[in-house]
């Protein structure tokens, strides 16, 4: 599993509906983290647990001295979790990404849901996008702070 984690002052996700292109809000948070989550072929529930624990305890919020020393749990923030299979896009051979490493939807969706459930179990309020939908994500990156996480610890 891979995650792009952004510290935000606010964020929201809308789903683009059918032919009209109208947008329907599905998730919104105030201060907290936006988590773009990709699931890889071969990922297991342990990866969801590991990343949820990492996200909840990642010390990227400022303390009273202005140092990044507080976690999402410490500051009482929320998470907006959006599935994003393109995190496993491979562009090493050419210009069009290949997605062979991305898990099929029937495998990815339960692991995406498991990640959200693990975050909730840790006490994090979680809003989500809609799996496999065309979404628009709006956010105000606070800092900016953006962290890359990988359950295989590749970075």
From TrEMBL:
Keywords: Cytoplasm, Hydrolase, RNA-binding, tRNA-binding. The keyword Transmembrane does not apply. Its main location: cytoplasm. Its EC number is 3.1.1.96, 3.1.1.-. A motif (Gly-cisPro motif, important for rejection of L-amino acids) lies at residues 143-144. It is found in: Cytoplasm. Pfam families: Tyr_Deacylase. CDD domains: Dtyr_deacylase (cd00563). GO terms for molecular function: D-tyrosyl-tRNA(Tyr) deacylase activity; Gly-tRNA(Ala) deacylase activity; Ser(Gly)-tRNA(Ala) hydrolase activity; tRNA binding. It comes from the Bacteria. It catalyses: a D-aminoacyl-tRNA + H2O = a tRNA + a D-alpha-amino acid + H(+); glycyl-tRNA(Ala) + H2O = tRNA(Ala) + glycine + H(+). SUPFAM superfamilies: DTD-like (SSF69500). Transmembrane segments: none annotated. NCBIfam families: D-aminoacyl-tRNA deacylase (TIGR00256). Belongs to the DTD family. An aminoacyl-tRNA editing enzyme that deacylates mischarged D-aminoacyl-tRNAs. Also deacylates mischarged glycyl-tRNA(Ala), protecting cells against glycine mischarging by AlaRS. Acts via tRNA-based rather than protein-based catalysis; rejects L-amino acids rather than detecting D-amino acids in the active site. By recycling D-aminoacyl-tRNA to D-amino acids and free tRNA molecules, this enzyme counteracts the toxicity associated with the formation of D-aminoacyl-tRNA entities in vivo and helps enforce protein L-homochirality. Homodimer. This is D-aminoacyl-tRNA deacylase. It comes from Caldinitratiruptor microaerophilus. The gene is dtd.
